[in-house]
Amino acid sequence: ESYDMGGHDTYMHKEISEQPDAVDRVLRGRIDDRFSTVHLGGLNLDAREARTIRRIKILGCGTSYHAGLIGAGLIEELARIPADAEPASEFRYRNPVVDPDTLYIAVSQSGETYDVLAAVQELKRKGARVLGVVNVVGSAIARETDGGVYVHAGPEVCVVSTKCFTNTVTAFALLALHLGRIRDLSVADGKRIIEGLRRLPGQIQEILKQEDEIKKLAKRYADAKSMMFIGRVRGYPVALEASLKLKEISYIHAEAYPASELKHGPLALIEPSLPTVAIIPNDDLLEKNRAALEEIKARSGRILAVAHQEQEKADHTIVVPKNETELDSILMGIPLQIFAYHTALALGRDIDKPRNLAKSVTVE
Ligand code: AGP
């Protein structure tokens, strides 16, 4: 993959558009249909060791931390191993209890982020086993970890991460499937997830085709001074990532909350000038999410929903293709990358180089 813009006006636009191919690349050569599982050559963790893992702790910063939150959810759902994610920048400073039965996973696009590298080094010093989910081959974090999964997103030039986020989450789905099939995930469920993974590139293509409509929506919301992003369980990390994307390139203030937390405080902010972006997959929380939309509408809040079907209470809905429920969060953030992009464009921002930010944060 070359570094030229290939006919796109910005690297961000190029990288958003590359996602079908990028996801295809993270899957390529890894699926084993015979056993309904995946092979992850560099993992360096045999089946016996994988069965002894009692807990998984994922560490990353910014977008990679958000990918880690989705990864933790996938690992809990598919492998039934307790898992959570934490900002690497905080982890090191709270003198964490390092447990020998916990597998640590460091996530990083660049593989050079100082906060993540320092957390890995601290963990290794304490004898922990640390794997990496990293994009840049041979980077510092890839070298320091005991093994891992390369994300194969290709070079990402724009300061804000898009294709690497999607590929990282997909890499976590592969890892979760692998661990699940070693533990208690059935052949049938393994097959179902593999079929879902194979549908992703085509479904991303379908989302990309909606760019013109999303651009119109972005122009409608670009006058907002602040935006609220909400989602529940699988949708919440998507909301966090979408709000970060909007902040980074449009400089519009944005907050992300679990929809269930609205009534515990943020509902006080809702009024016509504060639009809400709601992530509403067709899962077991659909009705509860719809109830949250009613609460927002009752306060005259504008709502943009990202959902699997039109949402009656929303002013606008971006409809995304349905995949297996466990994999839905991989797709739901993509229209919001396009939304953030066109919002920033409408506001005349320097999209590839947002103010105050660097692509790779190699200092503390
Ligand atoms: C992404 O849009 C951000 N610019 C930023 O949050 C980034 O994800 C973070 O600094 C971590 O970088 P890494 O993935 O290269 O470690």
UniProtKB/TrEMBL annotation:
<dbReference type="GO" id="GO:0004360">
    <property type="term" value="F:glutamine-fructose-6-phosphate transaminase (isomerizing) activity"/>
</dbReference>
<dbReference type="GO" id="GO:0097367">
    <property type="term" value="F:carbohydrate derivative binding"/>
</dbReference>
<comment type="function">
    <text>Catalyzes the first step in hexosamine metabolism, converting fructose-6P into glucosamine-6P using glutamine as a nitrogen source.</text>
</comment>
<keyword id="KW-0963">Cytoplasm</keyword>
<comment type="subunit">
    <text>Homodimer.</text>
</comment>
<dbReference type="GO" id="GO:0006002">
    <property type="term" value="P:fructose 6-phosphate metabolic process"/>
</dbReference>
<keyword id="KW-0032">Aminotransferase</keyword>
<dbReference type="GO" id="GO:0006487">
    <property type="term" value="P:protein N-linked glycosylation"/>
</dbReference>
<dbReference type="GO" id="GO:0005975">
    <property type="term" value="P:carbohydrate metabolic process"/>
</dbReference>
<keyword id="KW-0677">Repeat</keyword>
<feature type="domain" description="SIS">
    <location>
        <begin position="217"/>
        <end position="354"/>
    </location>
</feature>
<protein>
    <recommendedName>
        <fullName>Glutamine--fructose-6-phosphate aminotransferase [isomerizing]</fullName>
        <ecNumber>2.6.1.16</ecNumber>
    </recommendedName>
</protein>
<dbReference type="GO" id="GO:0005829">
    <property type="term" value="C:cytosol"/>
</dbReference>
<feature type="active site" description="For Fru-6P isomerization activity">
    <location>
        <position position="359"/>
    </location>
</feature>
<keyword id="KW-0315">Glutamine amidotransferase</keyword>
<dbReference type="GO" id="GO:0006047">
    <property type="term" value="P:UDP-N-acetylglucosamine metabolic process"/>
</dbReference>
<feature type="domain" description="SIS">
    <location>
        <begin position="45"/>
        <end position="185"/>
    </location>
</feature>
<keyword id="KW-0808">Transferase</keyword>
